[in-house]
Design goal:
Blueprint (H helix, E strand, L loop, with lengths): L2 H6 L8 E6 L24 E6 L7 E2 L6 E7 L12 E10 L4 E3 L7 E4 L7 H7 L7 E7 L16 E12 L1 E3 L7 E6 L15 E10 L6 E4 H4 L5 E4 L7 H7 L7 E6 L20 E11 L9 H20 L3 H15 L7 H24 L3 H14 L4 H14 L2 H14 L4 H26 L18 H17 L20 H5 L1 H9 L9
Family: Belongs to the FKBP-type PPIase family.
Subcellular location: Cytoplasm, Cytoskeleton; Cytoplasm, Cytosol; Mitochondrion; Nucleus
GO molecular function, one term: peptidyl-prolyl cis-trans isomerase activity
């Protein structure tokens, strides 16, 4: 468009007629003018343009280069728009810029396609991805976004105007992002997604049918038949159903029916397997969410009421910890800690109870991190307790154990020795920890001597073989680690999780010899001074 028109048109009203006087630099004499007039055109003169503003409308810019824009004709319902891999049903027609019809909708047959499978031109799919249910719009697509598809041929077309009426779309969710765990909505529920879903830990009531993904679709359970018609009731966040089942149920609305396809590792391979479900079986569940009860709202509770609710959740977390469900236990503790951000004790007695409970929760979070092998996170969480109370014995013990696991032996020894100074009753635990620390340090030093023995006598290219004779010793070390895990269940009564310390950046030597990096870290060295 000419620069003068670009500046002038936005000042006009619908139905207005106006005259624009333009200097040469505002019309065809503009540098890089996008419009080329005939050679005899008076491009160096002042020109007068008579313009009638017939109509204009708002559009949504779908692509930044204006290759795809959308004009809404009729607003849709709700806020959700289809995205990959949703299934879409829509009326679609198309014409060129000069109004030549190139695609007419078939009578009584809306077009059905799946987002992300190139079943419609790319630009059209991008535009539909901004629409809501029952919306009607015109989508303008230029040639760079007119890709070939089963819908139509786009050869030789510069721009196409698609008129689309989005009848319906089926919510299809790739829960893991790799196509293995798929939730497909069969019947819409009541409410707005996701605000009315049981995203928080809740009591859910569900009817479901479980089938093996074989040719016969063998049904191994149907709660409407096998459970005397009674629905399944369970509390989410406690590992009471397979992980894939709960992940999908949390994203359902009351009354919704969904079909879930689940891989073995999110079905029954890591859960109590029904007798008629073989190991490694892929599962299909048809789930209906009848309803759910949200957790109790703490708003308006007095201090004692808050602490009672916190204790219930903490007790559940402790049970999950004892069952080896460390991530679920940690989530319970963290939930209480988040709620504690809004609790204000009114006197010294309440403050003392509150502080002690928060410390217990943080230490239980640290224990969960330690059991999960996230030692740096465990250290960070213990620091939250020790910042407020540097003489907290359980925090010193737990942080010392985490330091020992990552090879920071001096820091671990300092924590264990501090335990002896601040609380004589902790002497048995501290003494045992120091003994374990000494043994672990000796094992690391012995392994280091074996790995470095004759290292510099090897020829170039043989350095990667250093330490390959230490398999028996590594096995012994892993057995010691297992024993340490069994011993370190001391004081597991709290929970929460926060920031994680960044791992040190790996250098070239570390990438070439990963075992060496771990070795130097275990010895408390960040770099190899010799090399």
């Amino acid at each position: 468009m000419l620069l003068g028109l670009l500046e002038g048109l936005p000042t006009m009203l619908r139905g207005e007629v106006a005259m624009f006087k333009m200097k040469p630099q505002m019309h065809y004499s503009e540098e890089d003018c996008p419009v080329s007039p005939p050679s005899s055109f008076p491009r160096d003169d002042e020109l007068h343009f008579e313009i009638e503003m017939i109509d204009f409308s708002k559009v949504k810019v779908v692509s930044d280069d204006l290759g795809v824009i959308k004009k809404v004709i009729d607003e849709g319902q709700g806020w959700e728009s289809p995205r990959e891999p949703y299934e879409v049903k829509a009326w679609i027609s198309a014409k060129t810029g000069d109004d030549k019809v190139i695609l007419s909708p078939k009578q009584g047959e809306p077009y059905f396609f799946t987002i992300g499978k190139s079943e419609v031109p790319k630009g059209l799919e991008m535009g539909i991805g901004t629409m809501t249910r029952e919306e009607k719009a015109v989508i303008y697509v230029t040639n760079q976004y007119l890709t070939e598809s089963p819908l139509m041929s786009v050869v030789g077309l510069e721009e196409v105007q698609f008129e689309v009426e989005l009848i319906h779309f089926t919510q299809v969710r790739d829960m893991l992002g790799d196509g293995r765990l798929i939730k497909r909505r069969l019947r819409d529920g009541k409410g707005e997604f996701p605000m009315d879903c049981p995203l928080q830990d809740s009591l859910l009531r569900i009817h479901y049918k479980g089938m093996l993904l074989n040719e016969e679709k063998t049904v191994f359970i149907d709660t409407r038949i096998d459970n005397d018609g009674q629905p399944l009731e369970f509390s989410s966040g406690e590992g009471l159903v397979p992980e894939g089942f709960e992940m999908c149920a949390r994203l359902m609305l009351p009354g919704e029916v969904a079909l879930v396809t689940c891989p073995p590792d999110y079905a029954y391979d890591k859960f109590t397997r029904p007798a008629n479900v073989p190991e490694g079986a892929h599962i299909e569940w048809e789930i209906e969410l009848l309803g759910f009860e949200m957790p109790k709202d703490w708003t308006g509770l007095d201090f004692q009421g808050v602490m009672d609710e916190a204790e219930k959740i903490r007790t559940t977390g402790n049970r999950l910890f004892k069952e080896g469900k460390f991530e679920l236990a940690k989530a319970k503790y963290e939930k209480v800690l988040r709620e504690f951000n809004h609790v204000n004790p009114q006197d010294d007695e309440e403050g003392k109870v509150f502080l002690n409970t928060r410390n217990l929760l943080n230490l239980n979070v640290a224990a969960c991190h330690l059991k999960s092998g996230e030692c740096r996170k465990s250290i960070e969480t213990c620091n939250k307790v020790l910042e407020a109370n540097p003489a907290h014995v359980k925090a010193l013990y737990r942080r010392g154990m985490a330091y020992m696991e990552v090879g920071d032996f001096e820091e671990a020894r300092s924590d264990f020795e501090m335990m002896l100074k601040v609380d004589k009753s902790s002497e048995p635990d501290a003494t045992a920890a120091l003994k374990k620390l000494k043994q672990k340090q000796q094992d690391v030093e012995k392994k280091a001597r074996r790995q470095f023995k004759g290292l510099f006598d090897k020829k170039p290219g043989e350095i990667a073989d250093a330490g390959t004779d230490d398999r028996g010793e590594e096995q012994s070390t892993s057995e010691n680690q297992k024993n340490d895990d069994q011993e370190d269940s001391n004081g597991t009564d709290t929970e929460d999780v926060e920031d994680v310390a960044n791992e040190p950046r790996e250098g070239l030597f570390s990438r070439l010899w990963p075992t060496g990096r771990r070795l130097f870290s275990a010895l408390g060295l960040r770099r190899c001074a010799i090399l």
